[in-house]
Write a structure and sequence with these properties.
- The protein has a 10-stranded antiparallel sheet with strand order 2-3-4-5-1-6-10-9-8-7, covered by helices on one side.
- The chain is elongated.
- It is an alpha+beta fold.
- The termini are close together.
- It has helices at about 25-30, 70-85, 115-120, 160-180; strands spanning about 5-15, 35, 45-50, 55-60, 60-70, 95-110, 125, 135-140, 145-150, 155-160.
Length: about 180
């Protein structure tokens, strides 16, 4: 059995600055290339360049960070933004609480799949090729969803740690090879 190759494509994190409120008008002026149109969306859209990550910033002191391809990149982008806010005299007393909400990874299982056969043999799947060409495979441990394609490629969503992505690839390979040699 060969472990599936994977690559992290996106990490989604929530960022909470406790006891902090942001003046979005002021922040939009401070942050270079920030987009703020309260008539359209109640937050600021901001993109950091190095490392690459995008943020949605809300007046409540909460943010979403998306688009980083590693946890280190996401944490570095959050640190840089926090420093930039502090330099601009935004009162931030504590380090933000950062929580991974979702990791998305691409898989290469290096084999083709008979999706119809998998759908018939496993109850935790959904496959409607007329609607979507991939099979949805739900794992309980780790609790993730993997989209499988005939080509042997896949997409994993719902992981909170990179270890969960690796385990999901190994677990799915084991399940399929045990039941459908």
């Amino acid at each position: 059995m060969v472990d599936a190759k994977y690559e992290i494509e996106n990490i989604v994190l929530s960022v909470t600055y406790e006891d902090t409120e942001f003046d979005l008008e002021r922040l939009a002026d401070i942050l270079e290339a920030a987009r703020y149109d309260p008539e359209v969306f109640p937050g600021i859209a901001y993109k950091s360049v190095d490392p690459t990550a995008s943020f949605l910033i809300f007046a409540s002191g909460k943010m979403n960070c998306v688009g980083a391809r590693s946890l280190d990149d996401a944490e570095n982008a959050i640190e840089k933004l926090t420093e930039e806010l502090r330099k601009s005299r935004v009162e931030i007393e504590k380090e933000p609480e950062v929580k991974v909400q979702n990791m998305v990874a691409s898989f290469d299982f290096e084999r083709e799949f008979d999706l119809e056969r998998i759908a018939r043999n496993f109850r935790n799947t959904e496959y409607e090729p007329e609607v979507f060409p991939g099979l949805v495979f739900r794992l309980d441990e780790p609790k993730v969803v993997i989209l499988l394609f005939v080509s042997g490629k896949g997409v994993c969503a719902g992981a909170k740690r990179e270890e969960d992505v690796r385990k999901a690839g190994t677990r799915l390979t084991e399940i399929i090879e045990q039941q459908l040699p």
